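In response to reviewer comment 3 from the previous cycle, which asked for concrete evidence that the modeling workflow produces usable outputs, we include below a single protein chain processed end to end. The sequence was submitted unchanged, and the resulting structure tokens are shown without manual editing.
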Amino acid sequence: MSTTAHEKTPYYYVPAPSRHPALGAVGLFFMLLGAGNWMNGITWGKYSFVFGLLWFLVVLFQWFKEAIGESESGKYGRRIDISFRWSMGWFIFSEVMFFGGFFAALWWLRVHSVPSLANAENALLWPEFKALWPSVVAGVTAAPAGIIEPFKAMTPFWLPTINTALLLTSGVTLTVAHHALLAGNRSKTINFMWLTVILGLVFLCVQGYEYFHAYSDLNLTLASGVYGSTFYLLTGFHGFHVFIGMLMLLFITLRLRKGHFTPEHHFGFEGAAWYWHFVDVVWLGLYIVVYWL
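The workflow returned the following structure tokens.
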């Protein structure tokens, strides 16, 4: 962004009324309508979901393109920058609460729900039941009533550990790219950003192979009791966040190649970096709680 543009930056830029929120709501409506009917076996549900998703993505593309144009034309000054930082901070806080709910559910199941099933009343119904978490004691992964097929719990070796190394390394490469941007070294910034994007993509590929291994070799599925449902809920939602974060970093890298961002004005870069570091921290919690404990 040029110095001349910033000299003409308004105190606080207020955009004109936009069509994008209403159009985005239309896409979300068809997505939710389709998803609900699809899950209930109605054929047209999947078509409604795909239509809504494509509609929503087109709206987002146009919306973000306008926002980028406003930024690069010098309309975003210090006040807007502060506003963006508060907004991103609250968004990440909401994501902390989102995953906090899942971690709390896992804790409640392990500490309260499963042990309570071993009381005297349930012992009469299922005398062979053991109130032990499958990842702690092997061999207690089948329901006494025979409604759940035997399965094996996922261990930290070696796929989850490899993914941990990948995400930690991506955090380092992203930090190097940030410092290179602050130093005005655009080529180094772009190279390390590409490396970060590649590491995120490899993480997703490894997780996909981990799910294949879990289904085919361990018989660990969504139907594998509360252990299976919480395992896929936590790791699956995290994988989705990695995918979103990887896309954010990809588009930031493409913008860097176009000459966007300067050492003084680059919140778009910083916001994506905050999100990626948040994703890294969440994975460390998952790695310990889901795979080790």
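The chain has two domains: 1-75, 77-292. We consider this sufficient to address the reviewer's concern, and the full set will be provided in the supplementary archive.
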